[in-house]
Specification:
Largest sheet: 5 strands, mixed
Distance between the termini: 55 Å
Radius of gyration: 35 Å
Structural class: alpha+beta
Pfam family, one: MMADHC
Oligomer: single chain
Strand order of the largest sheet: 5-8-4-3-9
Shape: elongated
């Protein structure tokens, strides 16, 4: 049998071991009470004194106590306690907070971001998910099966005022506003698709993880090579990578949404028309 114990850190483990080794250990001797009386002629008739019922007129010390014996409460074992995985603890579904308060905070942040957002062009391109990216979908969205499912990618690209490859306070502030703006738009699109019976989720640009789905260690950032198969270019600057738009260069911010709705279905085309206010261009990839 092998028993393994895992602690939070080695320093705390050593401290507990030192405290345990310094504790005093002793064993109390067993106390046996014997009645001094004359030996009976016939011991088969049973004990003469019920206080000394054992053979040889012997009893345990517990029988001589006047107060009743109280049972010690036994603490529940670790195996009986609830065990939760790291995935469940980090999942957004387990956040036990006031949902109304969280909704108000999120709505106020998004409204402020939309009010401060600049009047820059927005491009929406809908296409079938590339094969290489589709193979990684099971890691990006755990619990979902995309083997025989149709997966559509919707990239929402916003033109930026600042160059995304040159860091500055203005660039970082603009990126935060564009992130909030994309989350607002993507949430509305995902809600519409789900109401129509389709699955939909999008990637949080700040973390690279699904915004509505379960927590996962797999991420997808805008500098991933998968965006090369979706019409973008990735420029390697040595210290970092930057996404390049075919028309706007590095003055671009892209957000990605996934759904199992076909790219040529009516609801997807209506969403693209509403965003672009122009003709729909659906790019299909073999």
């Amino acid at each position: 049998m092998k028993v393994t114990a895992v602690g939070p850190q080695m320093r705390a483990f050593n401290s507990r071991v030192r405290q345990f080794s310094a504790q005093a250990h002793f064993t109390r001797p067993t106390v046996v009470f014997v009645k001094e009386a004359a030996v009976r002629q016939n011991s088969l008739l049973g004990p003469a004194d019920k206080q000394f019922p054992l053979p040889g007129d012997v009893c345990h010390k517990v029988l001589l106590q006047d107060q009743p014996v109280t049972k010690r409460s036994v603490a529940p074992s670790v195996a009986d306690q609830n065990v939760h995985s790291v995935e469940e603890l980090l999942s957004s579904n387990r956040v036990e907070s006031d949902p109304q308060y969280l909704a108000q905070i999120q709505e106020s942040v998004l409204e402020e971001a939309q009010a401060n957002a600049g009047d820059w062009p927005v491009e929406v391109i809908v296409q079938e998910c590339p094969r290489l990216l589709k193979k990684d979908m099971k890691h990006l969205f755990p619990g979902m099966n995309f083997d025989n499912a149709n997966v559509t990618v919707m990239n929402i690209t916003q033109k930026t005022e600042n160059d995304m490859k040159a860091w500055s306070d203005e660039m970082e502030q603009e990126r935060h506003m564009l992130t909030a703006s994309f989350i607002s738009s993507a949430s509305a699109i995902a809600t519409t698709l789900r109401r129509c019976g389709y699955w939909a989720d999008f990637i949080d640009p700040s973390s690279g993880r699904p915004y509505l789905g379960k927590f996962t260690n797999h991420t997808l950032f805008e500098t991933d090579d998968a965006y090369k198969d979706m019409g973008f270019q990735i420029e390697d600057l040595g210290c970092c990578k930057v996404l390049q738009h075919i028309a706007w260069g590095t003055h671009a911010f892209v957000g990605t949404l996934f759904t199992d709705a076909p790219a040529d279905c009516q609801i997807v085309q209506d969403i693209v028309r509403k965003v672009n206010n122009d003709d729909v261009v659906v790019q299909n990839r073999e």
